[in-house]
Amino acid sequence: MAPPAPPNDIILYHYPFSPYARRVIWYLQLRGIGYGQCIQPPTLPRPDLAALGVRYRRIPLLAIGRDVYCDTRLILRKLEQRFPDGALGARNGDQKAIERLLEKFTVDAGVFNSASALIPPELLVMKDSRFQKDREELSGRSWNAEDVKKGRPEALVNVREGFELLETTLLADGRDWVLKTDKPTLADIEAIWPFHWLVEMKGALPPNVISESRFPKVYAWIARFRAALQAAKAAAPKPVTLKGPEAAQHITEARFAEEPNGASVDAEDPLGLEKGDVVEVWPIDSGSRHHDRGRLVTLNANEVTVSSRCEADGRKEVHIHTPRWGFRVAKGSGDAGAKL
Ligand SMILES: N[C@@H](CCC(=O)N[C@@H](CS)C(=O)NCC(=O)O)C(=O)O
């Protein structure tokens, strides 16, 4: 029997409790864009991704055709470009700035890092030694219960500052949505996800420090967002679930979503790399030991693309895309098909 076809040629690799993956799932739901999904374990190994030749160890990843996009910052940008009709991104300059700065605030500036330090050590998953070890490999910090408890006060102070910023600036005038729109936009997604995640997580926020009575506007905004999502989810197509081998087969047999002939390497890029160079690319904040490797296809101000061989079928190549910000790219050596 033929494997199920992923709607719009999209396959999202994720696991349901990933707050980063939710950024993408919410976006797809709010837009009503159908997609396929391939559910991953919350810890390594992830043979479904290894089969594609992908070393990047974080979740989510999104494939469109034979192009695989790492990192939600790039994924959301690509979805905006690929489905411009009804895009959720801001339209004017000031609003675009707010949207981008909110992304930097939550993803880069550490709101999420502090939020993740508030996962209660009592949660079952936190007592799982395999999960602990996996996250230590990822982050380079200790995840044992005692150390997690020690880190909580400082993380709480940081997260409280995030709540306070939203309460007293963007949401202070009583608007429904961050950009004063009728419906949630990308700027709401960029701002809300770590706060929403913590509010939903039992035991993460001590009510004497962060609660509905202290931050009523933020809590009301989260409740509105939840209701908007529920309505969008009910109206959106249900995701089509694919098993790992089905997803890999689909991807390796698909066309490239981005025409390889149109790809270019910026001759003025400060790194001085050239098209076809064998390079390695990896995130510099965490999961940095996992390097993707391949021939350089695209290098511009916002994106690196390498062509990497699939482990499952060494004749097939997929294009792995990452953002520039938060990632390092450097010349590798030898054959791009070799395993790292
Ligand atoms: N900057 C990345 C961060 C992604 C990230 O850290 N995701 C978490 C899951 S929420 C993760 O990968 N955890 C480790 C893992 O699942 O292997 C993005 O925006 O996608």
Automatic annotation (TrEMBL):
<keyword id="KW-0808">Transferase</keyword>
<protein>
    <submittedName>
        <fullName>Glutathione S-transferase</fullName>
    </submittedName>
</protein>
<dbReference type="GO" id="GO:0016740">
    <property type="term" value="F:transferase activity"/>
</dbReference>
<feature type="domain" description="GST C-terminal">
    <location>
        <begin position="100"/>
        <end position="254"/>
    </location>
</feature>
<dbReference type="InterPro" id="IPR004045">
    <property type="entry name" value="Glutathione_S-Trfase_N"/>
</dbReference>
<dbReference type="InterPro" id="IPR058268">
    <property type="entry name" value="DUF7962"/>
</dbReference>
<dbReference type="Pfam" id="PF25907">
    <property type="entry name" value="DUF7962"/>
</dbReference>
<dbReference type="GO" id="GO:0005737">
    <property type="term" value="C:cytoplasm"/>
</dbReference>
<dbReference type="InterPro" id="IPR036249">
    <property type="entry name" value="Thioredoxin-like_sf"/>
</dbReference>
<dbReference type="Pfam" id="PF13417">
    <property type="entry name" value="GST_N_3"/>
</dbReference>
<dbReference type="InterPro" id="IPR050983">
    <property type="entry name" value="GST_Omega/HSP26"/>
</dbReference>
<dbReference type="InterPro" id="IPR036282">
    <property type="entry name" value="Glutathione-S-Trfase_C_sf"/>
</dbReference>
<dbReference type="InterPro" id="IPR010987">
    <property type="entry name" value="Glutathione-S-Trfase_C-like"/>
</dbReference>
